[in-house]
Design brief:
Blueprint (H helix, E strand, L loop, with lengths): L7 H16 L8 E4 L9 E6 L10 H9 L3 H6 L1 E4 L3 H13 L3 E5 L5 H11 L3 E5 L4 H15 L2 E2 L6 H16 L7 E5 L4 H13 L4 E7 L4 H8 L22 H10 L2 E5 L1 H15 L9 H8 L8 E6 L6 H9 L7 E7 L1 E2 L4 H9 L4 E8 L5 E2 L2 E6 L2 H13 L4 E3 L4 H4 L12 E10 L4 H9 L5 E8 L5 E10 L2 H10 L7 E6 L2 H8 L1
Parallel strand pairs: 2-10, 3-4, 3-6, 4-5, 7-8, 7-10, 8-9
Antiparallel strand pairs: 1-2, 11-15, 11-16, 12-14, 13-15, 13-18, 17-19, 17-20, 18-19
Length: 515
């Protein structure tokens, strides 16, 4: 029987076998590693396939190299063209340089510089990057037009049987690792090339394995396809997990996933951020967002997976350095639970400290935003964390008992973007201080209590916990008279107990803030 006449799943299995003898010209098998989840509560036995340790720091080299090895001499002469958000492009670049094939790679204009530089590093003189459009889909349109006019061969990132088969070799390594069989595998999905091939191969050897596809809440194209029983195009796609931000699932991957998947789960960006932190704290692995999606789903189902052996794949580590800071500060990336509250207090000296003393004792203030904008009342915003869900849950009752009016501001846009109002016309004799204090429980409270209590009104506060041992805040104080302000500044030690440095800021800064 001709191979092309075989059912798709059998053709895919054959192609994975053939890919065995091709892909290892370009890279070596990646390791499996045990991950022990933090925390005392029980969980599954987790094994991690470390594709972030591959030649291009992601699994995409497998499919691109397998497909390009099979090009005819005529196709090699005409070159190849592709579109990619970054990872597939690196695989094509690696194959192009190794095989001596020229490649044009279309990437969205928003592609992180780290991925562009990696493509050039792996491809050298054999690749040319063309930035086109603002999304992967727009880059695909430009690449397809290039294919039509130039005669170059288009190497699809996922909707190609040989590309899928190349990705499937990572599952072959899992089977041969000796760490199986596995009860479940959590596989992230973009276009579906990796998830379809890996699920197909795992089910071949472990027929009872549960296959769970994982997608981002705002990019669940495979879930939509399975519901509609055909690939459908999403109107909007969230690109936080840029490696899986695909508007429409591939036709070939969909046909396989329809057979192999037990279910598809979605994870939020906050859950992915939490998983990235766990990978760092356990394996010292810096994963890109899409690479941590499988673990995010495992964490979400931790209790249900107790006692089971679970496989996840870290699909890549090609993350823009600047994104790491955003992830570290994002909701969900911390170990503690958090909540943002806006509390009304009277606008008078000592009112802020009274609130901290009475209601926030035992809680960690991770973010503090306040600016004077009313003469009679203040509405400071506190983002509070605690290792105890019960302590945090008790905060509203403590505020109610203290007679405070409050609002839940968790997730509010103005809090996230730090829109801190300040009316300069309400200030009498202000001074702004740059404070560097030691990050320990109660240090900030002690500073305010010791040096400021009843001497001035707090008119501005901008502080966000950064994870350093030193906390940094910009504080505004308003005094009733110029003499009181001068006396305070004369007595203020630059260094003191609980803080490393406290310096008045320049008059120009004060003028800009209070204008």
């Amino acid at each position: 029987m001709e191979r092309d006449n075989l059912p798709l799943d059998r053709r895919l299995r054959q192609e994975i076998l053939f890919a065995r003898e091709r892909v290892y010209r370009f890279g070596q098998p990646t390791p499996m590693e045990r991950l022990i989840l933090p925390g005392a509560e029980p969980g599954p036995e987790i094994w991690v396939k470390r594709e972030d340790l591959s030649p291009v720091k992601c699994y995409k080299w497998r499919g691109a190299c397998n497909a390009m090895t099979e090009l005819t001499p005529e196709q090699r002469t005409c070159g190849v063209v592709t579109a990619s958000a970054g990872n597939h492009a690196q695989g094509v670049a690696l194959a192009a340089r190794t095989l001596g094939i020229h490649a044009r790679i279309y990437m969205p204009r928003s592609t992180p510089r780290v991925k562009q530089n990696a493509v050039l590093h792996h491809g050298g003189e054999f690749v040319r990057i063309v930035l086109a459009g603002d999304s992967y889909d727009e880059a695909v349109q430009s690449a397809r037009e290039d294919e039509r006019t130039s005669g170059a061969t288009y190497v699809h990132a996922y909707d190609n049987l040989k590309v899928m088969a190349g990705q499937g070799t990572l599952a072959d390594e899992v089977v041969l690792s000796g760490h199986g069989p596995f009860d479940a595998a959590f596989l992230q999905i973009g276009g579906g090339g990796m998830a379809s091939a890996v699920s197909c191969w795992l089910e071949t050897y472990w027929p009872g394995i549960e296959i769970i596809g994982v997608e981002g809440v705002g990019q669940a194209s495979m879930k939509a396809a399975l519901a509609a029983e055909k690939p459908v195009e999403l109107h909007d796609v969230d690109i936080f997990c840029d490696g899986t931000a695909v508007r429409k699932a591939g036709a070939l991957p969909f046909a396989i996933c329809q057979q192999t998947f037990d279910r598809v789960e979605t994870v939020t960006n906050a859950e992915v951020s939490a998983a990235i932190r766990v990978l760092w704290e356990t394996l010292r692995c810096v994963s890109e967002p899409s690479g941590a999606m499988g673990l995010a789903a495992v964490l979400k189902n931790r209790a249900a997976m107790v006692g089971k052996k679970v496989l996840i794949v870290i699909t890549g580590a090609n993350i823009d350095f600047l994104q790491l800071g955003l992830i570290a500060q994002s909701e969900g990336s911390g170990n503690a639970v958090s909540r943002a509250l806006r509390v009304r207090i009277p606008e008078r000296p000592g009112a802020m400290l009274a609130l901290l003393d009475s209601c926030f004792e035992g809680l960690n203030i991770a973010d503090f935003q306040y600016g004077l904008h009313r003469p009679d009342e203040a509405w400071p915003v506190f983002s509070v964390t605690s290792d105890s869900v019960e302590k945090l849950a008790a905060l509203p009752a403590r505020l109610d008992a203290g007679g405070y009016v409050w609002e839940d501001m968790t997730g509010a846009v103005d809090v996230a973007f730090r829109a801190i109002p300040l009316r300069g016309d309400l200030l009498a004799h202000p001074v702004f201080l740059r404070l560097d204090f030691y990050e320990r429980s109660g240090a900030l409270h002690d500073f305010l209590s010791r040096l400021i209590r009843d001497r001035a009104s707090l008119c501005y506060f901008n502080y966000r916990q950064s994870g350093e041992r030193i906390g940094r805040a910009l504080i505004g104080l308003d005094f009733q008279s110029a003499d009181a302000r001068a006396a305070f500044l004369a007595e203020l030690p630059e260094h003191g107990e609980g803080y490393r440095s406290c310096k008045p800021v320049e008059h120009e800064v004060m003028a800009r803030m209070t204008a």
